[in-house]
Amino acid sequence: MAVPDFQSWFLPLLKRVADGESHRLSDLYEELAQDLDLSDEDRAEELPSGKQLTYRNRIGWARTYLKKAGLLESPARGECRITKRGIEVLAQDLERVDVKFLKQFPEFEKFHTYKPSGPGEGGPDGEVVSATPEELLEQSHGALKDNVTQELLERVKAAPPSFFESLVVDLLLRMGYGGSREDAGKIVGRSGDGGVDGVINEDRLGLDVVYIQAKRWENTVGRPVVQAFAGSLEGVRARKGVLITTSDFSSEARQYVSQIEKRIVLVTGQQLANLMFEHNIGVSSVASYEVKKVDTDFFEEA
Questions:
Q1: Rounded to whole angstroms, how far apart are CA atoms 71 and 90?
Q2: Least CB-packed of 11, 85, 197, 273 within 10 Å?
Q3: Closest CA to 279 of 122, 119, 168
Q4: Helix (H/G/I), strand (E/B), else coil: 16
Q5: C-beta of residue 46 within 8 angstroms of C-beta of residue 53
Q6: Do 226 and 215 contact (CB within 8 A), yes or no?
């Protein structure tokens, strides 16, 4: 028996959390392995990268897909709980839940971005695949990145204030701002309300300075906050500023910074997570794949 594909875990996972309580994913691994009668050999199977057990990886992806469809939620780190929609799905007494079924939910359709654009070979679930292998690889990487950045943002919001302060300094240094970490840590200080506030060198030589403000806001940041930030640049003799939030900015706030003389960059929570991903803050590489093509010049020389 081989490890079932990730869609085969959808319904068993929903049934395991049907009581409405919060369940730890670490407990669900063993419970679901028993439900699907995995052998010791199946449980020991690893991904080609050797970084994770195959069945655990597939259960993890099953949880992700069900979350994107609104059938599960994460009340805490490493936990999942069924939603009202998930209970309604279970009430239908279905024999199987798969990607086709999940596509009825708008949130999942938005997440499951790949859409065939023309005739081609048949793909999974009866879909028609017209993209080249390189395009499929890029799309798969994009889906993986979206999932990782979403989890990064969730963890940043749940982390203690001191962790957030350290994160901002680490990210700025990795992006090339400031000098040493000790210097940057002194210049970008704590604001006292779960954020950071200060001035940092734009480059290692200190040719210009940038005023930094970063806060874990939950609600959309409006123009008054951004306008106050712009005014505070005067007090620190800075012409440039970076305002970071874990939420988003209103259209009025964006319009305001586009009209003023000072250069202010607004960084949303999603952009923060993307920057963390790009600069390897809070992430680690699991596997890498080298894409090759035939060297036509080599054969022309022959």
A1: 10
A2: 85
A3: 168
A4: helix
A5: yes
A6: no
pLDDT exceeds 60 at position 271: yes
Q: Are 17 and 82 in contact (CB under 8 A)?
A: yes
- CA proximity to 148, closest of 275, 6, 291: 275
**Distances from the Cα of 199 to the Cα of 185, 210, 258, 276, angstroms:** 10, 6, 22, 21
* Residue 299 to residue 287: CA distance in whole angstroms: 31
Residue 67 contacts residue 105 (beta carbons within 8 Å): no
pLDDT tens digits along 81-139: 999 999 999 999 999 999 999 999 988 888 876 454 444 444 444 443 345 667 677 77
8 A C-beta contact, residue 187 and residue 178: yes
What residue type is assigned to position 201 of the chain? N
Q: Are 128 and 116 in contact (CB under 8 A)?
A: yes
Q: In percent, how much of the chain has pLDDT > 70? A: 83
Distance CA 92, CA 201 (A): 59
In 3D space, the residue among 55, 70, 54, 53 whose CA is nearest the CA of residue 14 turns out to be 70
Q: Which of 186, 187, 164, 175 is nearest to 245 (CA)?
A: 164
Average pLDDT taken over every residue of the chain = 83
C-alpha Rg value of the chain to the nearest Å: 24
